[in-house]
Amino acid sequence: MKSAHPRKTRTERPTFLYLLDLVLLAWVIEAVDQFLLGGWLDRFGIHPRNPYGLIGIPLMPWLHGGFAHLSSNTLPFLTLGYIMIKSEGRRFFYSSAVIILLGGIGTWLIAGPGEVHIGASGLIYGYFGYVMTRAIIESRPLWLFTGILVALFYGSMLFGVIPSKDLPISWQGHLTGMLAGIWLGRRHKGMRSA
Q1: pLDDT in tens, 81-115
Q2: Cα–Cα distances in Å, from 187 out to 104, 142, 167?
Q3: Residue 117: phi, psi to the nearest 5?
Q4: Where does the Peptidase S54 rhomboid domain start and stop, copy by copy (predicted)?
């Protein structure tokens, strides 16, 4: 006899293909923005301390200042995003949303007025902060090994959180994204992939 209640199915675990889909989406958005809209979409980034600018918090990772900007974010997003998928499993999208939200609010609060902040680097810095925090506070060899590899390949990212008026980067987005990742990494200490 069949049960009256359907069996609950678990959400499918994200894979590397999910990351490729997200990158493809970002490239399509940038192509439309550059070739059809002349960069018009960039106005929907984060405008600090402007209520209108809050809409940029969920949009910031999808908007870039050209193909060079997007290219520089693509490989670190795929690399660090893959580590996040392996460590977070089904929590990946939730964890990414938390980093985007907290990093975006932080950028909105501390960045200078009149600026517009766009790009996926805040999320990437969040992944970096998460991975390095878990590597430092976990007692498992796999996390330590992962942290060493990430530090070797991406340790120079730390220079991106230093305030700079000479470089056209959102150091505020980098800093607040990384702090969001550190906070999340501490909260997920000891958690296994879902």
Answers
A1: 999 999 999 999 999 999 999 999 999 999 998 89
A2: 19, 19, 33
A3: -110, 125
A4: 60-185
Secondary structure letter of residue 119 according to DSSP: S
Judge whether 90 lies within some domain.
Answer: yes
Q: The dihedral of CA 57, 61, 63, 64: what is its sign?
A: positive
Which residue bears the tokens 């006899």?
Answer: 1
Q: Would you state the torsion angle of the CA atoms of residues 21, 25, 31, 34, taken in this order, to the nearest 10 degrees?
A: -150
What is the model's pLDDT at position 4?
54
3-state class (DSSP) for residue 46: strand
Domain that holds residue 22: 16-187
Q: Is residue 89 part of a domain?
A: yes
pTM of the predicted model, to two decimals?
Answer: 0.92
**Quick one: which of 127, 138, 74, 77 has its CA closest to 100?**
127
- Whichever domain contains 125, its CATH number is 1.20.1540.10
Express each pLDDT in 19-73 by its tens digit: 999 999 999 999 999 999 999 999 999 999 999 999 999 999 999 999 999 999 9
Number of domains present in the structure of the chain: 1
